[in-house]
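fold-stage: in
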Amino acid sequence: MENSIFEAYEDEIQSLEEEIKLLAEKYEDSQQESTFFSDEEILMSIKSFQREFWGESKGYESPSDLKALLETLETDLSFLMKFTGIRFTSHSKKTVEKTRNGTVRKHRLSGKCHSLSFQLEFQLLEMQNKDSVSTVITDLSIVMESGEDSDVSKFVSSTEEHRSLLTFFRSLSSYAEWYEHRRCTFLHFK
């Protein structure tokens, strides 16, 4: 009986060690994401952003200034969502590879455009030059509910081949709007 108690404890210890290992890996991944930029680089980016968009002298004197800015940004976002019909529901980013010349990150996006759902997965190669950062999409995978429409399948395949996100979102917005009109029209006649 004493052996079975020891075995149960051994099993529990092994299970806890595996859990600790998984948590350590997750922690390491999150540290890798957050330590991509040094504190100095982050502060320089913030200052550069403020100079570029708000001018040298403009600062925030109170939380109400920040609240007003946040409300303005929310209004702009709401307008863009109404204008394009695109609403993102989730986004995740993970660093796949980091070298001296650049960084490869894997992005996953999902959302809806009018009544059509879509999911994107792409890898983005970011290369740092002296004065700028250039990005290239190295891999693109699109999953979209297209029903029986072969034209959508062809479009998705072509977009994946050319790795053009801008073309995808422009075309998706237009197609989804007309898809919604057709759906409502057919419902009206049923």
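fold-stage: in (second)
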Amino acid sequence: MAGGGDSFRALLRAANALLQQRRYHAALAVIKGFRNGAVYGAKIRAPHALVMTFLFKSGSLREKLKSIAQATYAHSRNLAYFVFTYKGLLAAQSRLQGKKIPFHSFLAACIGGWLVFGDNNPINSQIIMYLLSRILFGLSRLAVEKGYIPQPRQDPFPLVAALVWGTVLWLFEYHRETLQPSLQSSMTYLYEDSEVWHDLSDFLIYNKRTDSK
């Protein structure tokens, strides 16, 4: 038993020594990036899938749990693959040119995005829309910072909020098919289901009656 413990400690010391080697840093960063992508994807998707599935999806408990597991796995896998691809390509470009330049990041991410997130499915679509909204905010702030557009005299956020909500509700009311299914479900719950009730039970307690009254 003691021999086994000594072997494990020796292996642990060897692994820790390897992790400290600067020449392996780029390759190890790619591996840890894969790990972090998988963990982060699971942390983000699992609670979201849990809430959305039990709120809006029908079916048995087993079917719901399977749906949650599949969505969590897909998000976790895609993010892990993307980080692995991005960091690998970034390291390769830096090694080939002898230094890191801003275009390396853009090119590596474009290739990773094409390969990993190019499939048009609900998970990828939601991730891309999440990123797109933050890109638009980021580019707007960068444009002001670089002087491409003047600094607003007043905070433009109230106007942005008004336009976003005005546009999305107009699309929901008159061009619903253009919106993502999960957003359609959320808005149906908020703005249409609140128009229907039969008695106090489905007015305050439940959204919809489940009996045959």
